[in-house]
């Protein structure tokens, strides 16, 4: 092949390379960037809204739980329950005036002392025994005068409490029309009080909370401009909206649609249901917010495409000029080598990439005569490369599984615990990113302690960890992150599926051992758990355990690892390392 033909061939390849690697990707980016960015914004917005919604749902559930606890207060005092029993039977008229006075005091004074609440947004309670009497526990803003002749039994909340038959009944926003001078809007929790012995109804108790607290909750969260928060009760009736909404929009939200429209505006909907009260909370995020971001992306994409093409054209003509001639010279050198002339070489000029290629060509030619000597070195290099590859497989796998444990903290709004967990993880990452292939056993134990503390954030009391180590073994050097995959497998496959408290143990000790009639010491590392276990004879060995076994064999010639597991009993992993193979710091 002549020089002109080579030059034309290289330029043709450069042209194709330019078109494939520059033009096509730029066109693809310009066409795909807006949709990708829109999808990314939607995901981020949805994630933020879900976090906000979870926190808001938790706050409302907390208030409802406080109200619910107030409705079980009568059960906590036997004398109060006795007074309610007397009020609900014909025995009341047979009591002496003093006995009636004592019973009234229980309901007028003793019970209110139990029902005192320091939270200003809980407005108080109303107790309605079956004889038609009324007892009110008023805080500062609660009227102590009931509307005379008010038909309590006809009210929706009263009937829901009777129908619940002792269970809690949640009521949406309503007026306190049963009290004089009390026009406050409240939402309530009611319960039918029943005789624990005979299950006979004794009365209805209801606790009220000021609906103003819903506005206060909304002020504590950050929403996209124009976002709407809607709260519906279990009958899909409106409890609260931070902006006025039309009945049509309310109906669309109640239907469970993921996208709703109102007044020519579209909204994406993220919703959640409060488990106890069956209230629905929905956040409506305006689509116009996403479109404004998308418009900027289009302009950015066109500017990027134009500048990219100009730069690419300049690079194409520059590169094609200085690539052709050096490649032609290198082809001539390779032809002489092909004919057996190992004394030839390429004349290197400069220090650019092609010059580097020429120097590599000269190095290759000079090393061909040393092929036999280099065979052993190549095998050794391959062994080291495999060692590093096995180690690098573990680190991303470990990082992925550890970060998965943070999701629960984020969804439940435990920001302080999440911060501490992130700080712990950052310390672990510093250790894993250090450019060391080996570490002291003491450092590995500290690393596993941090890892287990992060896992206990998720498992709480379900997981107990015990680590013991012979002090003489702390300075022994082992491959970094050798033990962590075993601990990780024990937690994920043994402890996580378990429904009882599980124990994870790690014991490290020296043990004597006979080898060819001579006593040799070994380091014994035992990692065990009492989780669900599995049939180790039938199951296939996983990636993490296989990597540990291969790294152990590459690092210690006489080392071995034994894994035993039984279903419903747990798993034990034994690692034996001869003392003659170990190194100390």
From TrEMBL:
Keyword Transmembrane set for record: yes
Transmembrane segments: 12-37, 297-324
Entries under InterPro entries matching the protein: Bact_2-comp_sensor_kinase (IPR050640), dCache_1 (IPR033479), HAMP_dom (IPR003660), HATPase_C_sf (IPR036890), Sig_transdc_His_kin_internal (IPR010559)
GO molecular function, one term: kinase activity
Cell location: Cell membrane
Pfam families given in the database record: dCache_1 (PF02743), HAMP (PF00672), His_kinase (PF06580)
PROSITE patterns: HAMP
Membrane topology note: Multi-pass membrane protein
Positions of the HAMP domain: 321-373
Keyword Cytoplasm attributed: no
Record key words, sorted: Cell membrane, Kinase, Membrane, Phosphoprotein, Transferase, Transmembrane, Transmembrane helix
Protein's name according to its UniProt entry: Sensor histidine kinase
């Amino acid at each position: 092949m002549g020089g002109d033909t080579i030059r034309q061939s290289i330029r043709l390849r450069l042209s194709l390379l330019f078109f494939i690697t520059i033009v096509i990707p730029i066109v693809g980016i310009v066409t795909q960037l807006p949709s990708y960015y829109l999808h990314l914004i939607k995901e981020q917005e949805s994630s933020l809204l879900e976090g906000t919604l979870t926190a808001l749902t938790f706050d409302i559930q907390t208030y409802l739980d406080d109200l619910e606890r107030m409705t079980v207060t009568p059960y906590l005092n036997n004398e109060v329950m006795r007074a309610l029993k007397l009020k609900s039977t014909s025995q009341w008229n047979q009591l002496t005036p003093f006995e009636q006075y004592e019973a009234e005091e229980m309901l007028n004074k003793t019970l209110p002392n139990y029902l005192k609440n320091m939270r200003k947004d809980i407005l108080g309670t109303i107790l309605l025994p079956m004889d038609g009497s009324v007892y009110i526990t008023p805080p500062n803003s609660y009227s102590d005068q009931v509307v005379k002749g008010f038909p309590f039994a006809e009210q929706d909340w009263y009937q829901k409490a009777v129908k619940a038959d002792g269970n809690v009944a949640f009521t949406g926003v309503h007026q306190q029309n049963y009290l004089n001078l009390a026009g406050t809007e409240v939402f309530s929790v009611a319960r039918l009080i029943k005789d624990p012995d005979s299950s006979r109804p004794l009365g209805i108790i209801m606790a009220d909370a000021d609906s103003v607290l819903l506005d206060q909750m909304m002020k504590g969260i950050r929403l996209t401009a124009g976002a709407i928060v809607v709260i519906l009760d279990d009958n899909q009736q409106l409890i609260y909206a931070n902006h006025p909404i039309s009945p049509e929009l309310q109906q669309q939200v109640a239907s469970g649609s993921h996208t709703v429209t109102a007044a020519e505006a579209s909204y994406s909907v993220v919703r959640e249901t409060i488990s106890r009260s069956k209230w629905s909370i929905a956040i409506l995020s305006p689509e116009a917010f996403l479109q404004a971001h998308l418009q900027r992306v289009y302009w950015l994409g066109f500017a990027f495409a134009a500048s990219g093409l100009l730069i690419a054209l300049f690079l194409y003509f520059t590169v094609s000029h200085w690539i052709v001639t050096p490649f032609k010279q290198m082809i001539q050198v390779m032809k002489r080598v092909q004919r057996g002339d190992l004394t030839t070489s390429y004349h290197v000029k400069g220090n650019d990439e092609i010059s580097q290629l020429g120097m590599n060509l000269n190095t290759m030619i000079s090393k061909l005569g040393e092929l036999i000597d280099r065979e052993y070195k190549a095998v050794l290099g391959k062994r080291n490369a495999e060692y590093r590859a096995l180690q690098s497989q573990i680190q991303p796998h470990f990082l992925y599984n550890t970060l998965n444990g943070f999701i629960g903290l984020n969804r439940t709004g435990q920001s302080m615990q999440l911060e501490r967990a992130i700080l712990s993880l950052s310390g672990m990452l510093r250790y894993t990113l250090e450019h060391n292939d080996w570490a002291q056993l003491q450092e590995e134990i500290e690393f596993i302690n941090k890892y287990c503390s992060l896992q206990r954030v998720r498992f709480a009391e379900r997981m107990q960890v015990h680590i013991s180590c012979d002090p003489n073994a702390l300075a022994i050097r082992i491959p970094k992150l050798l033990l962590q995959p075993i601990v990780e497998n024990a937690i994920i496959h043994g402890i996580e599926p378990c429904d009882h408290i599980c124990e994870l143990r790690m014991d490290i000790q020296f043990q004597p051992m006979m080898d060819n009639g001579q006593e040799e010491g070994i380091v014994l590392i035992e990692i065990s758990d009492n989780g669900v276990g599995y049939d180790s004879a039938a199951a296939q060995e996983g990636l993490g355990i296989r990597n540990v076994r291969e790294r152990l064999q590459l690092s210690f010639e006489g080392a071995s690892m034994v894994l035993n597991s039984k279903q419903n009993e747990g798993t034990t992993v034994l690692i034996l390392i001869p003392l003659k193979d170990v190194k100390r710091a």
